[in-house]
Amino acid sequence: MGNKRLEGKVALVSGAGQRGDIIGTGRASAILFAQAGARVFLVDWNEESAAETKAMIEADGGTAFVRQADVTKDSDCKTVVDSCKEKFGSLDILLNNVGGPGGGDVTEVTDNLWNESLDRNLKSAAFMSKYAVPAMADSGGGSIIHVSSIDGYRAGASKNVPYSVAKAGVIQLTRTMAVHHGRENIRVNCIAPGHLHGPFVEQIPRDLRDMRKRAGPLGTEGTAWDFAWAAVFLASNESRWISGVVLPVDAGLQAATPLSVLHNLYD
Ligand SMILES: NC(=O)c1ccc[n+]([C@@H]2O[C@H](COP(=O)([O-])OP(=O)(O)OC[C@H]3O[C@@H](n4cnc5c(N)ncnc54)[C@H](O)[C@@H]3O)[C@@H](O)[C@H]2O)c1
Known about the structure:
Layout: E1 10-14, H1 25-35, E2 39-44, H2 47-59, E3 63-68, H3 74-88, E4 93-96, H4 111-138, E5 142-147, H5 161-181, E6 186-193, H6 206-215, H7 224-235, E7 246-249, H8 258-266
Parallel strand pairs: 1-2, 1-4, 2-3, 4-5, 5-6, 6-7
Bound molecules: nicotinamide-adenine-dinucleotide.
Residues 14-15, 17-19, 24-26, 44-46, 49, 69-72, 97-100, 120, 124, 147, 149, 193, 196, 198-201, 224 line the site of nicotinamide-adenine-dinucleotide (NAD).
């Protein structure tokens, strides 16, 4: 199998562009999928940014195609999956990477932010899957990877009720889909990133960035590449007997209690 473990597969990545200057999980995963031999269908509402990802993949000898879409819209999700099948003939891997805002405690929720957060984080994953599942079933199965967050199963470092609730929903979407579609040979898993340094947190102050790093048992800072290697594994046949799991990529933070890591912050 070697490093071409995705040879012959078609991978669709939502949010395959990049917001800001730091590489995000969608772009990093698309690049590693292509390096592993997959043809990659890149989806983003920012077409220009997805085109930069395509150029990076092609410069590396890989194959990619860009489709502009808003994956919070049912009709766009259908069009994207249809055009992926038309372009590359099948769909084997779906990475539902798009996520979005949702700050504030429960007394601060507004209709708009609640709807935006639930749409960006949860509806997008469900509706992309709505069309990907039959497409994968047609070609004998596939691997769907959702993206939650450490905030999807613990209270976040900042108050973010809409985001946390949506990311918790992504975990339950993973489990229900894994059970419903196992017999179609479709595996459904979820990556829960911890305190990665990515576009999401580009603007945070230096001392908070340092605190995020030191809180993790490993004491090192994660990047989008750490996420992307986990995505390659879950996409590949090497994880063929793994479905319905939530894989933390967080330097061990999910294993800790607040007091067990307290000393890390003051060492
Ligand atoms: N970076 C972290 O620390 C961290 C931690 C936990 C979870 N996550 C999750 O990882 C995922 C990626 O986060 P990131 O910070 O790497 O990337 P990001 O937030 O910068 O988004 C990546 C891309 O998604 C696109 N996008 C946003 N909404 C879209 C829509 N409706 N339709 C199509 N494209 C859309 C953007 O244009 C951007 O290019 C998200 O689901 C996020 O919630 C990140």
